[in-house]
Amino acid sequence: MASRAAAAVAVLALVCAAVHSSEGQLSPNFHAATCPDLEHIVEFHVAETFRRDVGVAPALIRILFHDCFPQGCDASVLLKGAGSELNEVPNQTLRPVALDLIERIRAAVHSACGPTVSCADITVLATRDSLVKAGGPRFDVALGRRDGLAPASSALVGLLPAPFFDVPTLISSFGNRSLDVADLVSLSGAHTFGVAHCPAFEDRFKPVFDTNPAIDSKFATSLRNKCAGDNPAGTLTQNLDVRTPDVFDNKYYFDLIARQGLFKSDQGLIDHPTTKRMATRFSLNQGAFFEQFARSMTKMSNMDLLTGNKGEIRNNCAAPNRRVQDIETAATGDEGIAADM
């Protein structure tokens, strides 16, 4: 009798587990049974690429942001072909080295574990590990995302915040995606590393030096002189953070105080009364910045997910499974990243 009761409890537990899984609940241990080496595989490939190119870290953060913001973290930004998000203006400078890294990790994971882990999960894990490599905080990642079947529309991609946005427009843009002011100020701090192309910030010195918000005149002069040689347009790049351009730290907020914010959207954070206090605090307290950035990254990486039976596990990150045979993996040669989030 006791054994029957125990068996009944075991069956009930399995049923509950199945129901839990079908509802698509995320969990840090979602792949523990099916792919126990997942995080080791991701960490290895990220470390190898980071060793050759530290710029892969800001490139991955930008890919994740541009994936999550339009329609949720479903790896739709990785899709190639007609009508893809990669063809939209904000995504045309996403770095191929980072896109290729995600696909190489996917191939290694599927070789080791079978097609059990989504490109969406891999993108989040790779971003987290590269952030740590660059000196940033480790943020919590729950797993179990599924990949989208189609790219976001042009209208949705158009919702991405632009580098010329003022603070009220940024607050509205983030708020429409359930991200608050703390998320805005901290996630903007991702501009503490990486580079941008001249067309993304030429409004800071053309036709005259920007006064709203104001830019340091020497900094504006250096940008104007540098970008005078940008031919063809978009060839030259500029470090987003003039102090420690390859390290994830809080020096971005020092730049804002010195009026050396590269984008209008950055510099405004230190002037607007809604964001000034937090931006100033982050300049004085890197720990506070890291703590909020980690929270905001976790929050952003859980936006509008496909789980359970929704979406799919792609066999190639660049294509839905129905046309995977027609897709080539991303090329490895590229220059820079226009971090215009």
UniProtKB/TrEMBL annotation:
Gene3D superfamilies cross-referenced by the UniProt entry: 1.10.520.10, Peroxidase, domain 2
Pfam families listed in its UniProt record: peroxidase
Name of the top EC class for this enzyme: oxidoreductase
Listed InterPro entries: Haem_peroxidase, Haem_peroxidase_sf, Peroxidase_pln, Peroxidases_AS, Peroxidases_heam-ligand_BS, Secretory_peroxidase
Cleaved signal peptide residues: 1-24
Active site per UniProt: H66 (proton acceptor)
Disulfide cysteine pairs (residue numbers): C35-C113, C68-C73, C119-C317, C198-C227
Keyword Transcription among UniProt keywords: no
Binding site for heme b: H191
GO process annotations (BP): hydrogen peroxide catabolic process; response to oxidative stress
Record's keyword terms, sorted: Calcium, Disulfide bond, Glycoprotein, Heme, Hydrogen peroxide, Iron, Metal-binding, Oxidoreductase, Peroxidase, Pyrrolidone carboxylic acid, Secreted, Signal
The protein's required cofactors: heme b; Ca(2+)
Recorded catalytic activity of this chain's protein: 2 a phenolic donor + H2O2 = 2 a phenolic radical donor + 2 H2O
Subcellular location: Secreted
Electron transport found in the keyword field: no
Binding residue positions for Ca(2+) 1: D67, G72, D74, S76, E85
SUPFAM superfamilies assigned: Heme-dependent peroxidases
Protein name: Peroxidase
Source organism per UniProt: Aegilops tauschii subsp. strangulata (Goatgrass)
